[in-house]
Amino acid sequence: MDLGDSLELLDSYLWRHWRRNFKHDWADQFTFAEADYLRCIANLGSSRLTDIAHQLGVSKSSASEMLGKLAEHGWVEVEPSESDSRSRLYSLSDKGDAIKQQCLRGYDQLVERLSDSLSQEEFDELNELLARATEIIWQSTDRRSSRPAAASLGNAHPAQSPR
To answer: Which residue of 29, 63, 86, 107 is most buried, as measured by CB atoms within 10 A?
Structure first.
């Protein structure tokens, strides 16, 4: 199997695993784009629409539409900015944070499976190569956004992960 085939299979498996990880009635309607917004808001903290749009590399109108949808679901809270009365700040609600945590648990399960199946040396090498590949791919994409914070598999057992 070549690298392209492996990436395609990995993408398919990760998508299925991610979808199976949700055990709520709304899970069938929950999209990866919504998860991406929740992850972005969690990483940025309470943020303006402009900052979220920039981080995700989307237009402000697209971000506004999605943030409205997330607020309707109760996954995001919207508050006026204290420093600029024209601006609103978006942050995760308790419900949104629970969803984000559920996403992270799904990834932690995969990291644990890899950790249990590979030697420490193989695990460290995989972590390093994936980090390098991610950086190379990110740099080669035509996106307006900032590079997301580097997330690594870690160099220890997943239970020691800082999440």
So the answer is: 63
Whether residue 37 lies inside any domain: the answer is yes
pTM of this structure:
0.69
Its domain, for residue 42, covers 25-111
Is 125 domain-assigned?
Answer: no
What is the number of domains present in the chain?
1
**What integer pLDDT is reported at residue 139 of this predicted model?**
78
Q: Helix or strand or coil: residue 66?
A: helix
Contact 105, 99 (CB under 8 A): no
- Please tell me the distance from the alpha carbon of residue 58 to that of residue 145, in angstroms, as a whole number: 8
CA 31 to centroid of chain Cα atoms: 12
Query: Is 157 a residue whose pLDDT tops 70?
Result: no
